[in-house]
Amino acid sequence: MEHLPVLWEKIEMIKPYKFENIYSDGKNLLTKGRPVSSEKTINEYRLWNPRRSKLCAMLLNKCKTMPIKKNSRVLYLGAASGTTSSYVSDIADNGVVYCVEFSPRVFRELIFMCEKRKNTIPILADANKPEKYRHIVENVDVIYQDIAQRNQTEIFKKNIGVFLKKNGYGIIMVKAGSIDTTAKIKDIYNHVINELKSFEIVEKIELKPYCKDHLAICVKGG
Ligand SMILES: C[S@@+](CC[C@H](N)C(=O)[O-])C[C@H]1O[C@@H](n2cnc3c(N)ncnc32)[C@H](O)[C@@H]1O
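Output (structure tokens, whole complex):
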């Protein structure tokens, strides 16, 4: 792993980070939990790779607000094979993570991840159609979305409308290239921010150098 830590081998360097259930060795972030793939571990700690997880990149890029906490109920849209959602499951260890994914191929791997984690629920569904999983998902504290689709903002707003509790938070990982391949990146970001203007924008964080042309936007629902 290319960003491997200078301090990693020294467990005594691992300290609680500024957010609940997240740790740091001074350079890298870690959570405590069961390993999922080939990530490095030391005792019960799992190294979190910001190049494989946009949430980790957001947290490392001077993020001030982390709405996912120990007791959070989280709706995770675009869970893929479960890499980031496994870390969300470690953080919300006393909560629930509803993992929505529509590709049957990666969903099989997601099921393996969820089988080992009691607070995760895999849902094979299209996030465009929240009514299809309304009977499974309760109202949640946080909606986290990482879906590389042209209408990603529309999907996010639709799910917020159906599932987000009053004063809950939404985090959307905007992939500029999925929305428009010709426009300037800043213009795409501004367009998305404008589409989200009915919410309070809590933070906007670019994910470089870990993920090129991605912006994390955290909003607060009314
Ligand atoms: C960038 S990957 C997600 C990576 C994952 N969040 C992680 O960090 O481990 C985007 C995922 O969104 C899924 N996706 C795209 N459109 C979707 C939709 N409408 N409903 C559900 N999943 C969707 C894709 O199949 C893909 O697995």
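DSSP finds six helices and twelve strands in the chain.
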